[in-house]
Amino acid sequence: MPDAAAEAATASAARSEGDQGAAADPLDPGPGGGFVAATLDELSRVVWPSRQQLFSESVGVILMVALSAAAIAAIDRFYSWASSQVFR
Q1: Residue 2 pLDDT more than 60?
Q2: Rounded Cα distance, 18 and 20, in Å
Q3: 22/7 Cα distance (integer angstroms)
Q4: Contact of 35 with 29, CB cutoff 8 Å
Q5: Euclidean distance between CA atoms 11 and 19, whole angstroms
């Protein structure tokens, strides 16, 4: 009975040798040049946020960035003050 490592190596070798059963790469335009069509198809599947959701999430991001900047500034000022006390 083969172990799991041997099975994984066999599967990896089959993939690297160009397994014909694998699905085509959707980013490869191929001879038909279907990249643009595939991109438009993916964009039609996107669930776009509502105006209210976009606004509330943008406010949340701006608040978190402002709080993070304030925390980093406070820590920086503390270490600046501490180093000026130590290295007079």
Answers
A1: no
A2: 6
A3: 18
A4: yes
A5: 10
14: left (phi over 0), alpha (psi -120 to 50) or beta: alpha
Q: What is the pLDDT of residue 71?
A: 98
Identity of residue 77:
R
Q: Which of 25-29, 34-38, 57-61, 76-80 has the lowest mean pLDDT?
A: 25-29
- Determine contact, residues 23/30, Cβ cutoff 8 Å: no
Dihedral (Cα; 6, 11, 14, 18), 10-degree rounding:
-150
How many angstroms separate the CA atoms of 66 and 62, rounded? 6
Tokens of 70: 């304030």
What is the predicted pLDDT for the residue at 69? 98
Eight-state DSSP code of residue 22: S
pLDDT at residue 7 is higher than 80: no
